[in-house]
Design brief:
single chain, Rossmann fold, about 40% helix, binds 5-O-phosphono-beta-D-ribofuranosylamine, seven-stranded mixed beta sheet, 6 helices
Length: about 200
């Protein structure tokens, strides 16, 4: 029987712990996405060697020296060659252009370590501690041209403790990230493509 699951790519820049949680979830046949490709903008990203170690095709993008358009052209081509339907950003530290996001409209998801719309951008956990909030968390959202501002698919909340360091809070949030991201990817893939398929059939 042919595999009707959608084909996913994961984009990383670093250790890739969210990537690992997605790869693990996708080992179950009931998960609606297979991850066929991991791309990094950093050849030394530890997540890249983990992915190739478990038999996933990997690609390290060349440096951005030739300009952003060429860099994004390479990324687009690699994703196209692998026949990718869905892109999951997982600790991918580059901002994608509006053009790129348009070409992959509604097909890029991201996880961010704050309760968006609070604390977008870098160092979200430190921003939360500086603001003195009593709750923090993470958000999975659809990527749009405006950074960390696309439609929210789901959030998980954790308490902030008075004694928290950035590392302690980040670790507490990360545990939730590993649970939330695969769940939201599954839910999104099921509803998104069911709607598309119904529209195409109608
Ligand atoms: C996570 O906290 C994620 O929310 C943020 O970057 C971090 C990546 O961690 N976007 P990892 O590489 O998945 O371990």
């Amino acid at each position: 029987m042919s595999d009707t699951r959608k084909r996913g790519a994961i984009l990383i820049s670093g250790r890739g712990s969210n990537m690992v949680s997605l790869l693990q979830a996708a080992q179950h046949e009931s998960f609606p996405v297979t991850f066929d490709l991991v791309v990094s903008d950093k050849i030394e990203a530890p997540g890249l060697s983990h992915a190739s170690g478990v038999g996933i095709r990997t690609h390290a993008l060349r440096s951005c020296r030739d300009g952003r358009a060429a860099w994004e052209g390479e990324l687009h081509a690699v994703l196209g060659e692998a026949d990718i339907d869905l892109i999951c950003l997982a600790g991918f530290m580059r901002v994608l252009s509006a053009d790129f996001v348009d070409r992959w409209s509604e097909q890029i998801l991201n996880i961010h370590p704050s309760l968006l719309p609070d604390f977008p951008g870098l160092d979200a956990q430190a921003q939360a501690l500086d603001a003195g909030v009593s709750e923090a968390g993470c958000t999975v959202h659809v990527v749009t041209a405006q950074m960390d501002a696309g439609p929210v698919l789901g959030q998980a909340v954790v308490p902030v403790q008075a004694s928290d360091s950035v590392d302690a809070l980040s670790a507490r949030i990360l545990t939730e990230e590993h649970r939330l991201y695969p769940a939201m990817v599954a839910q999104y893939a099921q509803t998104f493509w069911a709607t598309k398929d119904a529209a195409n059939a109608g």
